[in-house]
Design a protein that fits this description.
The protein is an alpha+beta fold. The protein is built from six helices and five strands. The chain has one domain (37-192): OmpA-like domain (60s Ribosomal Protein L30, Chain: A, 2-Layer Sandwich), CATH 3.30.1330.
Length: 212
């Protein structure tokens, strides 16, 4: 009886070992494989944005401390926020003569040339002073002007989107002159193109709300 019990335990242990080895050697479940691939892809995109951020910091180092140009980082995107006063004369959509070669737009162009999987969405904002329709028109024209400036640097139009947001999404109070200066801005959002099957080709995953 003792020999039989020993033999049975050995057989049971051998079967367990075989089962474990089979599980280890078996192909991964499709869902698990897809999850791992998604994490790796996300990690690669995050590392790329780290490099983009480092490049922008380097190129913007020459700006004075009071330029108020900011880099805003999100998990899947990075935004360059540029005060409108650095790019445009007051109440116009004509770029200043020095705006295109200046650090912010030159840096944006360099990023898009170096990282060809990235796209950019340009959104222009105004303050809330004045006529809503005129503010919307001004923001539309400013977004287009920045888009044209990047195109002139050799960036394909298919990689650029532009939007005028008018006085939507203020980042400061419009009740003070200082707040209104902050709200008049252009934001260039860098993001990888949406993978096939996750939306329209060349589209961003999420767009800011349209101006009222």
């Amino acid at each position: 009886m003792s020999v039989r019990r020993t033999t049975a335990r050995a057989a049971s242990l051998a079967a367990a070992v075989v089962a474990v080895l089979a599980a280890l050697l078996a192909p991964a479940h499709p869902a698990m494989a897809a999850s791992a691939a998604g994490k790796e892809q996300g990690s690669a995109a995050s590392r790329e944005l780290d490099r983009v951020q480092a490049l922008l910091l380097l190129r913007l180092a020459s700006l004075p401390d009071d330029s108020r140009t900011l880099i805003l980082r999100e998990p899947e995107s990075l935004t360059l926020r540029i005060p409108a006063r650095l790019l445009f004369e007051s109440d116009t959509a004509v770029l200043k003569a020095a705006a295109t070669p200046a650090a912010p737009l030159a840096a944006a162009g360099q990023v898009l040339k170096k990282y060809r999987k990235l796209q950019a969405r340009i959104v222009a904002y105004t303050d809330s002073i004045g006529d809503i329709t005129l503010n919307q028109s001004l923001s539309d024209q400013r977004a287009q002007a920045v888009c044209d400036a990047l195109s002139a640097q050799g960036i394909a139009a298919a990689r650029l989107q532009q939007q005028g947001a008018g006085s939507a999404d203020p980042i400061a109070s419009n009740a003070t002159p200082e707040g209104r200066v902050e709200n008049r801005r252009v934001e260039i959002e860098f993001q990888r193109a949406t993978p096939a099957g996750e939306g329209a080709p060349g589209s961003f995953r999420s767009a800011p709300a349209a101006a009222p």
